[in-house]
């Protein structure tokens, strides 16, 4: 795939830049324990991540994808979850292999990098700071930064406007349906990582990469004036 026209890259956070499941599961289970509920396996919590913390609390309280807990229960759960998670953002959360290298390499191509996550801004910012990668990004948009979050195209359209590039000149790398739908609706290139919280082969991305270093290699090839390509 020719990526020559790409001028900026947006990254999803959970399941793409970082593996945050152990800490999210620990906080969900701390919440459940305080509410006299049995713990959930981490893989189950992983399947509930992707639509923001409010939805994660509903799902981990009801142990289902689409049921809602009543308002009082949800408020209690939300407060317990947030209090615990905010204090334990990076106990076991780590960048995936190649992420740190790839961010440096991509910046050497002078491509602005942004984060578009459905995680709340007040959780995403300290998480990125604690892993020491916040300064790699020109813009960090959380799920509550704008009136709409992914799968809406709005965060990507907003990022493109801030960076003064066309949405079609952006590439969004993610691990879920929400990421691919956001990219599609905005007219951006949709790239899926093969190692995230969902099965990438079901996502209908334009491209699947096994590591962000592989993505860098593809972009370098398309952006290097000395490489002559046939496509
Ligand atoms: O729902 C979340 O908090 C995770 O969101 P993300 O995968 O968009 O980073
Ligand atoms: Mg994700």
UniProtKB/TrEMBL annotation:
Its transmembrane ranges are none
Indicate the secretion signal residues.
none
Keyword Oxidoreductase carried by entry: no
* EC number of this enzyme: 3.1.3.18
Q: Which InterPro entries does the annotation name?
A: HAD-like_hydrolase_sf, HAD-like_sf, HAD-SF_hydro_IA, HAD_2, HAD_sf, PGP-like_dom2, PGPase_prok
> Which domain of life does the protein's organism represent?
Bacteria
Which of UniProt's keywords are assigned here? Answer: Carbohydrate metabolism, Hydrolase, Magnesium, Metal-binding
**Catalytic activity annotation:** 2-phosphoglycolate + H2O = glycolate + phosphate
**Cofactors required:** Mg(2+)
Identify which residues the record assigns to the active site. Answer: 12 (nucleophile)
Per the entry, what this protein does is: Specifically catalyzes the dephosphorylation of 2-phosphoglycolate. Is involved in the dissimilation of the intracellular 2-phosphoglycolate formed during the DNA repair of 3'-phosphoglycolate ends, a major class of DNA lesions induced by oxidative stress.
HAMAP family, alphabetically? Answer: GPH_hydrolase_bact
The identity of this protein, by name, is: Phosphoglycolate phosphatase
What is the species listed in this Swiss-Prot or TrEMBL entry?
Vogesella oryzagri
